[in-house]
Amino acid sequence: MQLVDQTKVKSRMQTRLKQNKILKGVFFGTTIFALVVLVILLYRILTQGIGYLDLQFFQNFASRFPEKAGIKAAFFGSLWLMAVIAPVSLILGVGTAIYLEEYAKKNRFTTFIQINISNLAGVPSIVFGLLGLTVFVRMLEMGRSVLAGGLTMSLLILPIIVVAAQEAVRSVPKELREASYAMGATKWQTIRRVVLPASIPGILTGGILALSRAIGETAPLLMIGALTFVAYLPENLLSGFTVMPIQIFNWTSRPQTEFHDVAAAGIIVLLAMLLIMNSIAVLIRNKFSKRL
Amino acid sequence: MKTIMDEKKVVKAPRPEEKKKEGNTVYSIENFNLWYGKDQALKDIKFNIPEKQVTAIIGPSGCGKSTFIKALNRMVEMVPIVKMSGDINYRGKNIFDNKYKVEDLRTKVGMVFQKPNPFPKSIYENVVYGPKIHGIKNKKVLDEIVEKSLKGAALWEEVKDRLNENAYGLSGGQQQRLCIARCLAIEPDVILMDEPTSALDPISTLKVEELVQELKKEFSIIIVTHNMQQAARISDKTAFFLNGEVVEYSDTNQLFSNPTDKRTEDYITGRFG
Q: Which family does it belong to (chain A) (predicted)?
């Protein structure tokens, strides 16, 4: 008495194999879809914007005339903003991650903090803009400055950096910490000499990715009132400023179609900057992971 | 069956250095209990560990031998749910005393782990890790420490030309001896070894065993092993742990040839475990 009917098994075989093939096609299709969209996007922007992309574009400030319009103020504004965001968010983020992973005892309080950090990562950026407007611009009277913008953006990406750094710190093998403690090292010595060197690639990768999110953000800066027409470079931390996404937004909302091409040129610059930052992140990861 | 015969042969080989020193004790453990949460892992442990001898801790898996050795340098406290009672005295001082800093204890009591765990740094940097932690910066002194420690761990000849290469390029056995060298570099008093050869091949194991014999001239060694032959070959004293208790503790010779407790006899003759 056979429980498995061999003829039926055989007749089902074809259907099963066909199903297998179809699903392979479906998954391939989903992957290609994303790729095609990206290619179309890049193609359109490149063909539209390449004409305006010359040295002058980097040397000129914003202008009423499309042929004279340049991205200088926005480009340097973005760099200034980076200069504030990078140190502030990295120091705060890595510090928090180390405290939570290495020092804090696992109890309700730390679980509470942990959940809230994850929640913060999901808060819409416009809300951070409101916070920045209230706290930095108004309460601390920083005005619509690079400093206020940078601090707001730092808060925005802080949760991302904390989570990335925590994961990097957690991935350092327990055995290495044990080896260090067993030789009489203090906690700080172990962190400095064992944990940080081993987790720095993860921390930097996460940090750079978070920073590249920050240079693409517009909403919080609009909220705190970054300017849209700037014909000067920031001189210090309290100067007014604009950034590339805002400048691009400004151009696209003008009626003259020439400005849309200028906007495309701006997008090329912004995308190039993002690509460069992401490649640096990849390079760092590869360089360090080889050493381990 | 054959192995038991071998054991006895090894045990009965003359050991001239034995007996002549019934010297100082490094550790005296008094009524020591340890719990992981609600599970009691060690029950009423009570014995003394002698100076400059090899003390082996044997017993089946889960009998608490690793827990015990990790209590000796308080590494066991890295598990957050551990609770302890009773005393462990190191050189007459209670290691759980508030005034006794754990960093101080671990400077004198080194440890070699089950799995070789060198740092992802050069061989040189691995050895000088401990000395640097304790504030030694003089390059000349550090160089000397590296040579002395690597020679002490019988690794110098194999690595002296590639001290700046990454330690992960070494074989498992070499890595373990590097960990021993790293431990020697801070010139400890006691070396704890938690199944140091369980991840090694037989030849590397033999090298480490020979090394232990050399090291006991200068250091007091406490070694956890679940290899009974190894305990019989290299140790002077043996403690047999079972379910968190010390069933029997005596000279290795005595314990293996003439155990007083039935459970010890069953274990060493391979009837369980």
A: Belongs to the binding-protein-dependent transport system permease family. CysTW subfamily.
